[in-house]
Amino acid sequence: GPAREAAGVAHDEFDGDTVGEILQSAVARYGADFDRVLAVSQIWVNGNEAELTDVVGPYDEIAVLPPISGG
């Protein structure tokens, strides 16, 4: 989807202690297009909706889920 297109990859790994730290690293790596997608997206960790302050570990998966459009 849009997040994958903006990042140029489907999966990546980052160091950080919170969801917010990980996403800041992703924006630094992928740039403004990814930041724009992130601004309108939901963030999930291991299949559950997450907050930027949520603590994450090395085996957690963070997903960026942009809004879905359709008709």
Describe this structure in words.
Strands 2-1-3 form a three-stranded antiparallel sheet, with no helix packed on it. By secondary structure, the protein is an alpha+beta fold. The chain contains three helices and three strands; from the N terminus they run αααβββ. A hairpin with a 2-residue loop joins strand 1 and strand 2 (48-49). The model has no long low-confidence stretch (mean pLDDT 92).
Summarize, please:
With about 70 residues, the protein is α+β, with helices and mostly antiparallel strands.
Query: Hey, roughly how much beta strand do the residues contain?
Result: 5-15%
Tally of contiguous helical segments: 3
Helix content: 25-40%
Q: State the separation between the terminal residues, measured CA to CA.
A: 17 Å
Quaternary structure: single chain
Structural class: alpha+beta
User: Which blocks of ≥5 consecutive residues have pLDDT under 50?
Assistant: none
Q: What's the average pLDDT?
A: 92
Helix and strand string, N-terminal first?
Answer: HHHEEE
